[in-house]
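This part of the workshop introduces the protein records we will be handling. A record pairs a protein's sequence with a compact description of its fold. Comparing a sequence with its tokens is the quickest way to learn the format. The record below serves as our worked example for the rest of this section:
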Amino acid sequence: GALDASRLRISKLDEWLGLPMDDAATCETYLAERILTPLGVTSARYLSFNSEAPDPVAECARVALELESTGPFDLCILGIGVNGHLGLNEPADEMTPHAHVAILQATTMDHPMLNEAGSPPTSGLTFGMEDLLSSKKILLLITGGGKEAAIEALKSGQVTSQAPATYLWQHENVVVIERTN
């Protein structure tokens, strides 16, 4: 059937910092080609981190303020990184609650999306764990190889900042779809 996307609002979860917004490796380009353009989502209904922001901290504050004004996500679609990250919330001693500049781990900088980026970015912009966990519903898509340790940590049920995906145990409405190859 047809999907009426005329009222759909989309927020980009994260972005590689420093890449041009129109670079093929950006989340911006990925979303524009696969979701925004096909569904006719206008800029007025799209919240996005600017990967070229002159002041990344101010950019995170801008996005955080916008999210605060529109309310929590109805549906947050996430993937899990090989190191257990969600968005660009990397394993750390503690999680950052709201939009922030994230320092990327080597495993994240090795993301296939960045294969053509030349020098991969060392940081990114992302919503924080509290932002994600405030969502009404979360859909976790597990795809790709090399994620066995992250999946095992998630399945353990033990919440730890060293495997951010485990924080999903603190949310009451998570659906997990795992595609094995």
